[in-house]
Amino acid sequence: MIGAEGIGWSRHGGAGMGIELRDISLDGGRIHYLVAGSGRPLLLLHGVGESSAYWREVLPRLASRYTVYAPDLPGYGASDPLPSDEAPAPERLAEAMAAFLDTVNGAEAPPAVVVGHSLGGSIALELALGYPDRVHRLVLEDSAGLGHYVNPALRALTVPGYGDVATRAGRTSIGAVHRAWARIPLMFAQPHLAPPHWVAEQRRLAGLPHHLHTSLAALRTQAGPFGQRRVLLDALPQLRIPTLIIWGAQDAVVPVSQARHAASRLRHGQLAVVPGCGHVPHLERPEHFLDALQSFDTT
Fold first, then answer.
1. Is the pTM above the cut of 0.85?
2. Which CATH superfamily groups domain 2-150+231-296?
3. What digits encode the pLDDT tens for the residues 237-265?
4. Which of 52, 81, 283, 294 has the fewest Cβ atoms within 10 Å of its own Cβ atom?
5. Distance separating alpha carbons of residues 164 and 158, to the nearest angstrom
6. Helices 162-170/211-222 angle, 10° precision
């Protein structure tokens, strides 16, 4: 076990809070994850192109209330990919995360609060719909799967050939730098709020063996040249658990109108719109994200 400061956890005073880096075998492959804290389990699911390090701004404070699990999804970061004949679709990754919870959480543990961002939100929603006994409360942050529109820059990557060339270029040293900086205006409403460690992590991840390939494959399972393929709005009324939707008011990837439309479909739903914020509230406005989550899980 290493201290939070040993891997750069900084903004919320991680020093002295133990954060363990662990690996488990799941379906024959290795899943790398972070675990910290104590209390009800909380599962954090990152989006396309990211890893468990995505949550470093908020994990220390969350660990003061929960046992937090932040995995690298299969094929991302340090985790092994799914078998070559399986696409990293949200429903398949939800199945993997149900097995992950069963393994790390144990049969006697209470169900988890599940937080999913972007494509991780679609995975979290599939998990809540398909495995409702594993989920205590659901948080969807700027989630995929709640409307057809998605930014044209992401739709372009799904075009045969173009995304493959971009992926190969992104693995070069120059391409990794370009990719990291090109993502900033897409993800952040105020680019100067992009944490330097996030930019550095984008460059590091681009050089990993499976990361960009998995990112492209996952994007193509969810979206195509004309928008998102798998939209789960009609399934939202099936949710019987409390659900919070958190969204950046200036999200350029998926518009805030999708959040409002989705919230109107929920039986037990809340909506928190973060002002002056783009696609990543937990990075751009972490205090707003944490306050919304705390208010939601104490009601």
1. yes
2. Alpha/Beta hydrolase fold, catalytic domain (3.40.50.1820)
3. 999 999 999 999 999 999 999 999 999 99
4. 294
5. 9
6. 150
